[in-house]
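Journal club side-thread
Mid-discussion, someone asked how the predicted structure for our own chain would compare to the paper's figures. Pasting it here so we can look after the session.
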Amino acid sequence: MAKVLVGITGNEKHIPGQTGMTYVTVASELAQGVSDAGGLPIVIPMGEVSQARDYVTMIDKLILSGGQHVDPRFYGEEKSIESDDYLLARDEFELALIREALKQNKPIFAVCRGMQLLNVALGGSLHQAIEDHWQDGYAGTSHSLRIKPHSRVGQLFDQGSQINSFHRQSIKDLAPGLVATAHDPRDGTIEAFESRKGASLLGIQWHPEFLWQECERSRQLFRYLVEQL
């Protein structure tokens, strides 16, 4: 039986010590989580918008990975913060991947920035600056979840499950076709959403790839992605 091909969007970064060289990057734990769940991870490098159709055609499911802020032009706002943590070419390419995945009815699993971008692609908006959502160190967790019963997240995580937090922006207006299924009980930040009907969409604000080795619920999330989403 052929393995499920899961495309993971890659970022581009300059590596210190390798002056002038740009690398395609993705957290290895994200690919490992897919592989451990029985899927075959395929990293999709940033490319031309015209390539989106071919990339989506070759995969079974799409993961939108974390990274930079989403350019506010895509939700009708001017930039209101002092930051250079943007990559317009990535936004444009991944928005094309989203459009094509929706057209081809391919499931989308969106993590952190990916969740924010998917919300924007579907007509939502973002808070450009939030506080107290970036924990110290990549190990461990920082807060709990308030989960909507009978949701996809509710099938995978317990009420009060602990998650990590590495984001400086968050969802402001949720896109019309989505429903929020988990919140941060401290301030109401949307931590998960899914599609109301139709397309198989699941977005989470935290990073399960940094937890899956020690957390059975996170491993279950990756199995759900590969086997059911």
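Post-session note: The chain has one domain: 5-227.
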